[in-house]
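Why show two proteins at once? Because comparison is the fastest way to build intuition. When a single record is shown, students tend to memorize it. When two are placed side by side, the eye starts asking what differs. So, the first record is below.
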Amino acid sequence: MTASNTPHDESTYRPGGPPPRGAHPEGLLDGHLDSTAQLMNRITSQLGSQLSLVSLNGTRRPAPPALVLVAHGSRDPRTLATVRSLVERVRELRPHLPVRLGHIELNEPLLPDTLAALSAGDAVLVPLLLSRGYHVKQDIPEAVAAAPHLRARVAAPLGPHPLLAETLYARLVEAGWRTRTSEAARRASGVVLAAAGSRDPDSAVDTRRTAHLLAERLGVPVVPAYASAASPTVPAAVRALTARGRHRIAVASYFTAPGRFATQCAEAAPWIAAGPLGDHPAMARLVLHRYDQAVAASGTVTERALTPA
């Protein structure tokens, strides 16, 4: 909305009458158009949501499986706020889709409570985790087994996937990574991909694949490093890149949200440190992509959203 630089009382304005003293007619018109556009967007979204549940012959389609986003949980309040923001982005992309949130630990609602609150039917659990590991292989399937009223399927973790590489790239650019650099600058640059770490070897394989995708996107070496349970550490990875003649070293935060590990890794950056993946639009699209993959694999019939994932 375009605001006037001159204070005025909008409550005295009557449609069809003169604008308040000091008000700009153009500003009032812009504000009217903005509010009308917002209203039309809401109406279109709601209409699309309703139409997606009706088939061509007028009968109502089965409700789509519920999407349950499974977050790890954290004592850092920023983590919960970020996850909730990502949930809202997913809902905006698929207004007709029932979306729920459950945590493995530390935050409410806990995953067993979320599953218990769902009505009997189909559900797809999408882990907000970046690689295979204990939570994906043990914790989440155990929670599903304890909810026999659901026909639930666990989707693949978010990583590795090109959309993650795009999000990491965007966060690096936000932190100061130049999109256009000379060949000499590229030869002096490198990135440490800082991840949480896991003792599961599959987790390291997945993180290395993401590092490879990001290296292809940036055109510089990307070395995976870990905050715990695996090696190398971020400082060790920085030293390894420095030994290779790379002196402009950035840290890419391979974390879904802010937290203790993400902060520790960022503090070890000798140059710039990117923010976590967070609620970037590509993350919401990736969540829905994993959901769609799981739905297709289960053979459940449901209508895709009007906005593609």
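Second record. Ask yourself what differs from the first in the token line.
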Amino acid sequence: MTLSILAAPTNLGLRPPEPTSVPGCAKAPEALREADLHRRLLDEGARDAGTVIAGRYVDDWRAGTGRVRNEEALVDHAIRLGDRIESIIAGGDAPLVLGGDCSVLIGGGVALSRTGRYGLVHIDGHTDFRHPGSSEECASVAGEDLAAAIGLHYPAVSDIEGLAPYFAPDHVVHVGCRDDDDAINEVRGVLGAVIPASRWMADPAGALDRIRGTLAAGELDGYWLHVDVDVLDPAFMPAVDSPAPGGLDARQLTVLLAELAGDAVGAEVCIFDPDLDPGGKYARLLADVIVDGLGGLGG
């Protein structure tokens, strides 16, 4: 399979960092291009699959409405992104989606659930499991993407085209949350496996066995990789909207991705915010992680 780079520069799933401003993560694909990511992958035989542009960011969330922030634009983007991912896979390539925020997982879920039974490895510094059953303030899908992906969110985002759940909970592995994550006990009771960052760092071989065993038990058509770069400790990657101590270093994340990329149908990388990286240092670090960790995507 050939790797196809698909930009998804969306910030629709995030809260504004401060009043009247918008999140900067929509700039991530071009910041990574400037950090030489695209050239390095293209030199290794990858294809540039273009961009799926998101609609305008409007901070339109109001409590008690049963709607998420930027809902219409977010759903529209998810459907169009899903169309492109589906087309890339149908053509025999492995999509590497460069977000944007974690709401791009909805587009991947739509694409895959249209065509088969797929697993999900959700690599993230947070469980992203806020949902209407656990919170009265569901608003920002970037912090609720995993719940939406397994069908626990408002139907507008979790049941597009009647496809819920995009990933069956038993076929989902979460890797990377901190031990004090607010939803860790809930996700342990719902997902196929939950591996906090501390467990990965203490026993990567055992964690890989658990990941592979969970996915193998599902008799799946393949699995998707979701990578939120806040899985990295802020000592190494502070350019994210919700940094939390206790995360992986760049080498540890690279090893994890390289172990999983070859058998994955595709992947997405999310949440890097170039507004917090004016010198480009962290974009270059992330480019190295992507090339070394995901360069073999799809085998």
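One difference worth noting in the second protein: Strands lie at 2-8, 47-51, 93-99, 118-123, 172-175, 193-195, 222-228, 266-270.
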